[in-house]
Amino acid sequence: MTRYGGMGRTRPKKLTSKASIPIVREHEIDLIEDEIQNALQQIETGVEKAEESEFHLQVAISAAAQGKVKDAHIPTPETVLSNLRYDELYPPVFSQPATYIRFSSTVEDCCGPPYCMNEDDDVFLKNFNQKRDAANQCSEDNFEEVMSFFELTSRKEQPYACVDNSPVMSFEEFQEAMDAAVDDSVKRFAKDIYDYWKSRRVSGGNEPLLPTPKAEAGREADDTDPYVCFRRREVRQTRKTRGRDAQSADKLRRLRKELEDARQLVALVRQRELARKEMLAIERQIFMQRSEVKDMKRKLNIKDDDEDLINQRPKKKPVEAPAVQRPAPPQLRMPPKTGTQPAEDLLLLEDVQTEKENEIIRDIKQNITKHIKWNEGYVDFTRAPLSPSPERTYDAAFRPAITTQLPTPPSSESSDNMTDSAIDTRSAIALHKLGPDAMELSEDPSKMPSFRRRIGRGGRLFIDRRNLAARCRVEMDPWKADRFKYDQEDSDEELEYERDQFDIQIMQHRAIMAAKARDQAAAAAVQAHAQAQAAQAQAQAQQAQRRLQAEQLTANNNSPSGGQAGGSNPGPGAAVSTSET
Amino acid sequence: MGGRDEANGTPDPVEKGFATLSTIRIGVKAMVQKDGELRKAEILSIKQRKDGPSFYVHYVDFNKRLDEWIASSRIDLSHEVEWPQPEKPEKKKAGPSNKAPSKNAQKRVRAESRDVSATPDLLTGKNANVGKAQRPSKAGGKENRGDETPVNLSFGGSEAVSADGTPKPDSDDVDMIDVGFSKDVKEEEKALGLMSREEEIERLRTSGSMTQNPTEIHRVRNLTRLQMGKYDVEPWYFSPYPASFSDADIVYIDEFCLGYFDNKRSFERHRSKCTLVHPPGNEIYRDDYISFFEVDGRRQRTWCRNLCLLSKLFLDHKTLYYDVDPFLFYCMCSRDETGCHLVGYFSKEKDSAEGYNLACILTLPQYQRRGYGRLLISFSYELSKREGKLGSPEKPLSDLGLLGYRQYWRETLVEILMESGRENISEHDLSLQTSMTEKDVHETLVVFNMLRYHKGNWVIVLTDQVVEEHKKRLEKEKLKGARKIDPARLQWKPPVFTASSRTWNW
């Protein structure tokens, strides 16, 4: 520190960076003018020495010092809006992703063929295409690809072409360079465009047509040539040891091998896909030709067994069928070479058909076993069950009334009947009375109360029942007994009543009640206002719901069967029921 | 100090005399009409046109970006002109345009004795993109002690920033080893090189393909006009685009891939194929105005080379001598429906031996004076904070770079010093909070006359001017909204490079 302040006589204390310095306002200290210049001399600007004195920089600095912020700038050449048709060249295609962009493609990946046509090329291409028929026109893209191929290949093969005066590459050399990776369009047009490319290279002194900055070419002049840029940097030498040498050589060898493997793999995949493409093309061709044959046959009225329209093995009998083929299944093996047992590999219609049939049968079998598995431990007494029980007798058609839900809902045969809600509520009541007996549990399976559903004349649905509780009073645990206490009490008298359940009278009564309810509803609808009606309906619905809940509650308290009946779970009993005994 | 007067036109007795149009040659300093006044200008190049000769002039004591081609009528021959310095006796070369060879030779000499500190650093400035000259250039930057110190150094306002620096050619230690081991060999090589170079120059001179020898070329702007995005831009300096481009009236730059075309048709064809819509790297920062992308010079060699060629047009002291591999490029973009448009960037060494946190920095001319430069600088320090390092820009700074950095430094420091309740602070703490080096902190305080010795103690003085400007700034921010880098939006971890990725270049 060479700044002197205050008395200016004593050498100032050394200022260390860690020392805490008090912050004060200007008016709190005495101002000493002459120290300013002293101080500034110590500070380097960091600008090139020769440029520090530049007029505009000095003006800007002093203007800023005087607080004239607007004057404190250095004039620079102008930029103006371009008259380029920006919108055409830069289409609005960017949509910003929600997350930060991550991107690793290079410019080369994003720009297509690097060669871009100029006006001379337009003229050439126009002439070029005039001489060719419509199918063989070379598009601008094709042209650029060919030119890019020439440029890139010669850059690779003759990196110092413009320095060592090597001749322009011959077309034969290019042909050698054409490996599998070269596009077909390039191969098609390369020969015809080569002369044009050569003439352009020759006229330009074999300089590359792609504008590239001058690279170092190992010449002495490189060092001072201002156009030469982006030189390689000398690699920092690592300390050499035997171990490191062997190690890195090994690593390199392994890396090289792995890369080579990967390359091989890609090449093979490419080969396979090409073969497949070819195969598809041929199949298509066969198909087209067959359809031609078909038309021809029709036209000429040839009637034979159409053997020529389908694939077939030479020895086997042909199958009569349209010549539709299944697409080749996706598989990861190489299509075998043509010529080796062609017949073996033909896709035959009959095979396809049997295969399909087998598939269906297999499917059905599978489903059946699946179904049996689901219903294991249950017996399906519905009509035409999927998994028939082995000993299906008349008796077996009766189903024990186990008070659990059915494993699968009864077959859809009866669903029509059950949706008839008018009957539903009625029969629920009926069942409510009937239920307790029906749901009686019994230790002896043969004495269990059981039901059978059958369809009578006129499509009427019948539920038969037997072994009702009345006749199978067995010792039970007290809880169970308690559960069915009330059921047992009513059972006797109810039985009498139940027997008449399907009398004409009762059925008529039910029909009348249902009809009346409908009529009443209709009448109410006509009379009441829409609002009132809605309110009423809602009230009714609520009431009904409350009632239902209450019912359910009591039913649950009473017995499982009551619960089932009241809980709007229309079992088979929802239909007309009759008692067998 | 023979080299110095070539640019400064100061010192040493100069040969003066009257000249005619036909005797004017490269290196002559003449008075030239400019904006209604006469300015001393050095002739850097002469072209013969149909309507007479045209001269490329550099106005002495003005930045090179103002150099221009003028018609002979603007040269005032009624004043004496200064003739170029005679050649050094030992490097005598014949011919009127021989100044260049002599310079060339000087450079050679210098290159041979590059560790001698007495070498004039001016040459390095001139030959900024010429190889070996780089090394002393760095030293020159450090030895920039002022003997002709500007008065009242202080500034504010200019937002245009363009600092630049040069990639370090070699790490110093390796260099030393080189010199130590094989000095003799090298000198032999040099001698050989000298011979063939002079032959080369002779060839170039006599072949008539160029009016100048290679070392002079870079002093003349090579592109006339640039079309980029929505703007037409005037280049400021020479950039080593392909030599054929200097003939083009306008050079087209693709805004996204930064590819260059001297032909409109080619450019349009390219646009129809190019799918890039943002710099080819990872987005590491995004706010309402801008995004930052990190681009690795090693992975995106083409793009980064394109970027460097472009920025060289606006950075005098940038060197493209070496390749882009050892740098990361942090590119600031503004977004719209067409994509992320490059507004400015800075480059940063992957591993800076000198602790630089920034190598080159540029706001593209079409976006200058809008506060972008400040954002770039601020972002570079934000990265340093994330790294837990202190950083400083590589030297030399350009004039615009100096203004930009001083403004940023001052504002950043004042902001901390003005925090309410703060009564004292050490330079060390200031530097920790800002990631600025202690040297930068100290010098900023001194430059703005804030660090004073008062009654036996050091104090930081918040001068009235500083306080005033701080208030103004706060008001402006309130009015227009502050554009700042929000550290929370920076998704970035300091990248780690293995030794091999740093050294295994090819």
List keywords for this structure.
heterodimer; A: 581 residues; mainly alpha; 4 domains; three-stranded antiparallel sheet; 48% helix; extended; disordered C terminus; B: 506 residues; alpha+beta; SH3 type barrels; 21 strands; 34% helix; 20% strand; globular; disordered N terminus
Would you mind describing this structure in some detail?
The complex is a heterodimer of chains A (581) and B (506). By secondary structure, chain A is mainly alpha-helical. Chain A has four domains: 1-45 and 52-74, no CATH class; 112-223; 244-345; 397-406 and 414-574, no CATH class. Chain A is built from 19 helices and five strands. A three-stranded antiparallel beta sheet of chain A has the order 3-4-5, with no helix packed on it. In chain A, strand 4 (450-455) and strand 5 form a beta hairpin. Mean pLDDT of chain A is 73; it is low at 1-8, 413-442, 490-496 and 559-581. Chain B is of the alpha+beta class and 506 residues long. Chain B folds into three domains: 4-82, SH3 type barrels; 89-146 and 173-217, no CATH class; 282-503, Aminopeptidase, CATH 3.40.630.30. Chain B is built from 14 helices and 21 strands. In chain B, a hairpin with a 2-residue loop joins strand 8 (226-228) and strand 9. In chain B, helix 2 packs antiparallel against helix 5 (172-207), helix 9 (372-387) crosses helix 10 (399-417) and helix 10 crosses helix 12. The longest helix of chain B is centred in the middle third of the chain and has 36 residues, at 172-207. Chain B is globular and about 70 Å long. Mean pLDDT of chain B is 77; it is low at 1-10, 90-195 and 204-212. Chains A and B meet through strand 1, helix 1, helix 2, strand 2 and helix 4 of A and helix 1, helix 5, helix 6, strand 9 and strand 11 of B. Strand 1 (20-25) of chain A pairs parallel with strand 21 (457-462) of chain B. Chain B: It holds the Pfam family Tudor-knot. Chain B: Component of the NuA4 histone acetyltransferase complex. Chain B: Its EC number is 2.3.1.48.
